[in-house]
Amino acid sequence: MPPLISKVHERVRSPEAQDAFKRWFDASPIYSGPIVANRLGWQVMRTVAKNSAAEVRGLRTLGAVPEKLTSALDRDGMVVIPDYLPTPSHDAVRTAFEQYGQSPHLRDIGEENGSHIRYRSGPVRSDRPDDDAATIISLLTRDPLMIGLAEHVIHRRVRPPVSLVYQHLELPPGVVDDHDREQLLHADKFYSCAKAIYCVEAVTETSSPFVYCPGSHRVTVERLRYERAMSIRDAELRAGHLPRPGGEIEFDQIDFDRSRNVIGTDFRERLDLHERPLTCAANTLILVNNRGFHRRGVLAPGQSRKTLWVNFYPYQRPFYGRLAFRAAKRVIDTDNVSRALPAVYTQSA
Prior knowledge:
- This protein is an alpha+beta fold.
- It has 11 helices and 12 strands.
- It has a 7-stranded antiparallel β-sheet with strand order 1-10-5-12-4-3-2. A 3-stranded antiparallel β-sheet has the order 9-6-11, with no helix packed on it.
- It starts with a helix and ends in a 20-residue tail after the last helix.
């Protein structure tokens, strides 16, 4: 590797590079702008404009997707489909998943993100036409039902193959799963965005189920109030101002925990949020609109969770963002950037 490229690869592993990469090369960041602009309603305008544009664009399901599934997505923001693959196909995926666990494309990100659990994750990438990754890719990355559901959520065309992410979480005996910020209830974006989860093995109450608040994906007056309050808090945090007691009344409805601004009790009640752990049998597909509030359920000691994920956010990048991302990938190992947080986010309040 040329010296210059090597230096870039090393630099991108820093927390600051990780934060910048997400902010500038991902789909529109959930919050942006300075403190004053957000006080004046910048985030509210972004939310209304982005969601109005999606409705005007009007691109709905392009494939043959059952109406009962799209109706569930519109109503609840989530859909759970058991017995997703034919049994032989699921058995093949499960066997390949176990073998792929030794792939050099994976790494344990548990210590990086402060979760204190064994968190083996990474892209499902094939090195040979007949390897384990190729088996998984052939069975899931061009699946028309999953793609059709995602298109219904994001109102954009999804051209296969999609990218799969391997996730295997384990918690050793005697360790408590209470450090990971993903366990805190949050929304990923201020506009409709889709993620799919394929459960390789059964997910129970104790094996870190995906927890979702049905119906919380809808844009309401209270959601706009929440977006404004959170945008101000986020702008202050980015400016290096840690949360302080008092201040605007909205701030009393937002907490600061595990280096993250999170929804407080008052806003939970205002938004009528009710958490539902999505427990399910093996060979289940879950697809959600992550504009809704969600979190990772607690993993009990000695338990594990084995899933494959598809993030459809890249299909929502603006045209210039897609060009910039492709250019960045030439010099940045985008699958192996650090999951650590910038220093400002790790200070205590």
